[in-house]
Amino acid sequence: QVQLQESGPGLVKPSETVSLTCAVSGYSISSGYYWGWIRQPPGKGLECIGSFYHSGTTYYNPSLKSRATISVDTSKNQFSLKLSSVTAADTAVYYCARALAGPPRAFDYWGQGTLVTVSS
Amino acid sequence: QSALTQPASVSGSPGQSITISCTGASSDVGGYNYVSWYQQHPGKAPRLMIYDVSNRPSGVSNRFSGSKSGNTASLTISGLQAEDEADYYCSSYTSSTTVVFGGGTKLTVL
Do A108 and B103 touch (CB under 8 A)? Predict the structure, then answer.
């Protein structure tokens, strides 16, 4: 069974960079599929941040591209998200998920999410 | 990229059928057969219910079905049950090689 587990700081100050990690078990990231990050502000809808393939191909939401960086550590079977210059608008539950093979078009396995609050 | 348009809420009685619409553009919904639907209960992660317009992942009830016409996709839930009460989100692959979600629809089972 594929399982994903997010981890992060919980609270970050405005203008700082937040770093989140997603640990994957039950499936090797290197074996295929896309892997991505999605966020959900409190009481609001979902927003895809971006996704990557283990070969290095990475796609980002154009509205976040300049601030988001997704990286992978295949030796630990985990991947990460760095989001720079955060503001209160970046307060959200951040989910990591596996995307179906082919273009990264649907997420079939999700972590339980980690809340990131941006506040001074 | 703009979020896909969904009704804010829909409701139905147990046993009835409901349909949730999801309207996009030719650069997303209308341009690809890559529409998905997710169910989200309060405090939980989303669950994939439909992918590629009308395909159900293993374990999803056949009471859930999807379709698409032009720039609008639809999710139909037949034989409504109390446990179907949740938020539902559509999504689509886009010409920007990313995924855009709808604003979400709250389903109330009366």
Answer: no
